[in-house]
Amino acid sequence: MTQAYSRGFALAIITLLASTAPVIAHAQSPGEAASATATAEQVDSLQKQVQALQAQLDALKQQLPKATPSWKGAPQSDDAATGFSFKPKGTLQFDAGYVGYPGDPAGTLGPVSAATGAAGVNSNNLGFNTRLRRAIIGAEGSLPGGFGYNVEFELSQAGVGYEDVVLTYQRKGSPLQLKLGYQFPLSSLELSSSSRFISFMERPGGTDAFGYTRRLGLSAAYMKPEFLVSAGLFGDDVANANFNRTGWQASTRAVWMPKFGGTQLHLGVNAQYRTAARDAQNVRLRQRPYTQTTDQRPLDTGRIAADGDMIVGLEAAGIIKSFHVVGEMQWLKVRGINDPAHIFAPNNGTGGAAAFLADDPSFWSGYLEAGLYLTGETRGYKGGRWDRTKVLRPFDKGGWGAVQLNARIDRTDLQDRVAAGAITPGSLNFVNGGKQTGYQLGVSWLPTDYLRFIAQYGHVDVVGGPAAIAPFAAATGAFQDRSYKLDVMTVRAQVDF
Question: Most CB atoms within 10 A, among 210, 267, 410, 483?
C-alpha cells in the first residue's frame, strides 16, 4: 500500500465521519439517540482500523531500502527489490626501489658499461628505479537471479590489460559458487589473495618463478564456514592472439579453516596440471629479486622442451590476535620431451632454442613468514584467503592508523641434475636455473582501511644460475656453485577503493 493510497483512504473516512455528524447532532427521539450511539461506535471502530493500517504502513517504510547509496571505499548502490548492485573499484600502487650490484670476488666486473652489462649481473637495469606497479580500474556487483560480476582493467606500463573479468553464479543460501571468465587458476594462499592484502610488495618466489598467470576458464567452489573445496578447468591468456592450440590447465584446491575462539587456522593443499602450447612445447621458469623495479632475473632455467608440468602445494597459516604466521611449499615436475628429433605436431615446429634434457627435471619453492600488528589489529582473513584489515584507530578519526611488522624467509631452487655425466654450461643432464634464498623485513602503515604505505629490505643469496657463469669465470669452483649477493630496498604507496 502506497503513501498516497493511505492518505486517500484516510480522507474518505474523515468525509464519512463529517457526513454523519449532522445526523448525530440533530437526534432527538430515543430511537434516533440509539441510532446515533450505534453510528458513533461504527466511527470509533473505523478510526481504530485507520490507526492500525497507518501503523502497518510505518512498519513497511522501515523495511524499504534506502534510496541513497552506501559507502564502502567507494559509493555502492544496492536495490534489494530487483537484485541489482553496483560498486566501482580500483587500485593504485607506486613503487620505488634500489637493487644493489652483486659482489665481485674475482674483480672481473668493473664499472657498469655495455661490456660488463652483457654479463647479466652488473647491469644498467640494476640500481635505483621507479614504477607504477599497478593502476587498476573496474567495477563489481550483482544481477537478478543470483548472478554477479567483477571486471578489472590494468592501465599501467603504457598499455591496457586485463585483471579479473568474471561472471559468477550462486543461489541465495547455497554454498556452491560458479565462476566463469578470466581468473587466476586455483593455487596457493598467497596467489589466491589480492595484492592489496599480502604482507610484502611482491609475493614469494614460487608464485613468480613457476609462471602463474590468469587464464580463461570455469571454476566451481563449495564453501562452508570451516572448509573450502574448489576445482577448475582453464584455457590460455585472453590477450593471446595466437590461434594455434594454446594448451590448458586443470586446478584444484582444498582448505580447512576452523576457528577456535580468537584463533584462525588455515590448512590447505592445491594441485595444478598444465600443458604447454602446441606451437612451442616448452616450459621456462624464472624469478626477479623480490621487486618489479628491475627486469633482471637471477634465476632462469631457459626454455625446456616439454609437454607441460605438474605442481603440488601445501599451505598452513594461523592468526592469533595481532600475530600471524604462514608457510607454503610447492613442488613442480616438468614433463620433458627427451628426443631432439621430436616434431611438434601439428605445427611442424622443432622447438627452436628449447633444451632437450636427458630426463624430467623437478624444482621446488617455499617460504615462512611471520607478522605482528603493533597497534592491536587482527589480520584480515575470509574464505581461504587474506582480506582487508580493519584499522582500529584511523588517522582521520584522530588515531595513528595501523602499523604492522613482517619478516619472511624464502627459498626457490631451479637447479636439478637429471642424469649422470659431466656438468657443463648447456649440458643435457643438468638444469642451471640457480638457487635463491631471500631474507626480507618490512613495515606497513595503514592510516585508514584503504590507504597503505610499505617499506622493506631484502637480502638475496644467489647460487648458480645463468648470470653466475660469465661474470665469475675467473672464480674457483664449478659454475653451478658460484654465488653472489643482492640487497633490495623498496617502498610503496597504495590506495584502493
Answer: 210
* C-alpha torsion angle, residues 304, 292, 91, 314 (rounded to 10): 50
| pLDDT, position 31 | 63
The phi and psi torsions of 253 (rounded to 5 degrees) equal -150, 140
* Residue type present at position 226: E
Do 16 and 80 fall within a single domain?
A: no
Q: Which helix (H) or strand (E) holds 491?
A: strand 483-496
Tell me: do 53 and 86 sit in the same domain.
no
- What domain count does the chain have? 2
Burial 409-436 (b: 16+ CB within 10 A, else e): ebbbbbbbebeeeeeeeebbbbbbbbbb
The residues pairing with 100 across neighbouring beta strands, listed in sequence order, are none
List, in order, residues 6 or more apart from 477 with CB less than 8 Å away.
none
**193, 199, 205, 207: CA torsion to nearest 10:** 10
Q: Tell me the DSSP string of 342-385.
A: --BTTTTB--TT-B--SS--EEEEEEEEEEEETTS----EETTE
| Angle subtended by helix axes 30-63 and 3-25, to nearest 10 | 170
Q: Does residue 15 sit in the same domain as residue 79?
A: no
Task: Tell me the residue length of the chain.
Answer: 497
Cα 373 vs. chain centroid, distance in angstroms?
A: 21
* Judgement on whether residues 281 and 403 belong to the same structural domain of the protein: yes
Q: Among 12, 35, 63, which residue terminates a domain?
A: 63
Residue ending a domain, choose from 42, 63, 84: 63
Instruction: Show the cell assigned to 434.
Output: 640457480
Do 201 and 251 fall within a single domain?
yes
The answer to whether residues 195 and 93 belong to one domain is yes
Do 35 and 145 share a domain, yes or no? Answer: no
Question: Cell match 587474506: residue?
Answer: 386
Do 59 and 75 lie in one domain? The reply is no
- The grid cell for 164 is 579479473
| 321 three-class SS | coil
Neighbours of 455 (CB within 10 A): 14
Range of the domain at 379: 70-496
β-bridge partners, 122? none
Q: Which of 446, 492, 426, 408 is nearest to 204 (CA)?
A: 408
**Per-10-residue mean pLDDT, the chain, length 497:** 48 49 50 66 78 77 61 81 90 95 52 43 77 95 95 84 94 96 94 96 93 94 97 85 76 97 96 87 92 91 92 98 98 89 55 78 98 98 97 95 98 95 86 96 97 97 83 65 90 96
